[in-house]
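Notebook entry, structure prediction.
Reason for the run: the old model in the group folder had no record of what sequence produced it. Starting over properly, with the input documented here first.
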Amino acid sequence: MTTGTGFDIRRIGGRIGAEILGVDLSTDFDPAVVTEINSALLKHKALVFRDQHLDDAGQLRFASLFGELTTAHPTVPSVDGQPHILPVDSDEGIRANQWHTDVTFVRTPPKASTLRGIVVPPYGGNTLIANSAAAYRDLPEPLRELADKLWAVHTNTFDYAAYAAPRSEKAAEYRSRFVSREYRTAHPVVRVHPETGERGLFIGGFAQSIVGLGPSDSRDLLRIFQSYVTRPENIVRVAWTPGDLVLFDNRITQHYAPDDYGDLPRLLHRVTVAGDVPAAVDGTLSHIIEGDDASHYTAAAA
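New structure, fully documented this time:
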């Protein structure tokens, strides 16, 4: 499909994902191009821009076209001298090999995330991205009606790093930093997208429990809902080459980076766009249970 401003959109998955062709992210954009890229993002949920070879400044400039930037992370240090950039570095023990949506343990998770491939292993190291709106639509009606009423507690002390013992001293240090400030936030299990009105399952690896239910029932329900998110038909797999950039809508996707490349180096840089407070089907907004409002994270300046 060719857009009105001349770039092409090529779908790479039946329910999620498209490659954007004919756009040079290092140049200044006409506002109409930004509008069309945003429209493609809302439709396809995840966009891949091949062979862009941006530097940090270029990634920051591109991400800022979609809104105010967050700082790198609520608890984990940024790239030196770059307060908005999070290094996703396998050498530092950062292996996000559990399904999650970025930073849902705070009240205002990011609107969108950009990932830029810098060092890519010769095999493995892909990123999987899932469409949580398609997952919601897949639910049988009784499960949709139940999900619409539920809330989940998200916390950074129950994250993708907690599923296995740290594999190295660096990984242990990273986990210690990750949980150095505890956050617990209640979000609706079904989030209404603020731009499209779509409903999506807003759960993932930081969702620890269902409000009003015990640990066993919470685990069972979250497992059932999560199984719909991770159905193969709802997932696109991005195979990285150095210089690629991926933009995904963090409000209605989950992602996963399989740990399948051994001790090979893998380095991505992440920049996220500040988001709003999630709203439930009835309009009720997410609320903090423990921790602060993470203003040091959501603010544009460090």
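Summary: The radius of gyration is 18 Å.
The old model has been moved to the deprecated folder.
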